[in-house]
Design a protein that fits this description.
4-stranded antiparallel beta sheet, single chain, 204 residues
């Protein structure tokens, strides 16, 4: 017999497992009729290679989703390992509204969307909205990549509700069973910046 307690325990176990998914952290930005907005997400993924399409999950009441849909355009800033403070800032529900939330941040307007692109971000994607639909309690926003640019470096990563920054260690391309000890890890700094989602952000 399945009880409510059993179902709750099963959901909690599944939720814990899902939080173990590691993902790069990005800040989505959009501008519509002069109103700018940014929000931190850890749900950006490539949906299609040809054509190049990105997907991102947002809550239905997301300010970013509304602006992006109204404008038909948005931008993605994939953050570098050094940009933890930016991720925290754009995840704070108490941050200023509009252009004030970008004060003291170095950025340039995207060529296509006009949305803020942060200096030092690991990658920029300037996108055209090609789809928006609801899945469960979130909306999926699809964007065709119009322009993209990247830099060398390591990404900021979210895993189990926390942010991680450091050096990525490549996995050996062969199975070396003679090794006695694992190769030393690079610097892997756990930032004291739990990715507490703002109202419009996706739980991590």
């Amino acid at each position: 017999m399945t009880t409510n307690v059993t179902l709750r325990n099963r959901w909690s176990s599944q939720e814990r497992a899902l939080r173990r998914l590691a993902a790069p952290v990005s800040v989505l930005t959009a501008v519509h009729e002069g109103h700018q907005h940014g929000t931190t997400v850890s749900t950006v993924t490539r949906v299609s290679r040809r054509p190049q399409v990105l997907g991102v999950c947002l809550r239905p009441d997301s300010v970013l989703a509304k602006l992006a849909t109204a404008e038909g355009r948005f931008a993605v800033n994939m953050l570098s390992a050094a940009q933890g403070p930016l991720a925290r800032h754009f995840a704070e529900s108490s941050r200023p509204d509009g252009a004030a939330q970008f004060q003291d941040i170095d950025w340039q307007p995207a060529a296509y969307s006009g949305a803020p692109l942060f200096d030092g971000a690991l990658a920029h994607y300037d996108c055209r909205v090609v789809g928006r639909f609801t899945v469960g309690d979130h909306e999926v926003l699809l964007g065709a990549v119009v322009h993209a640019h990247s830099l060398d470096g390591d990404p900021l990563v979210s895993q189990d509700g926390e942010l991680y920054a450091g050096t990525l260690i490549p996995v050996a391309d062969h199975d070396d069973r003679t090794a006695q000890t694992p190769a030393p890890l690079g610097v892997d700094l756990r930032l004291a910046l739990p990715l507490t989602p703002a109202k419009e952000n996706v739980p991590t």
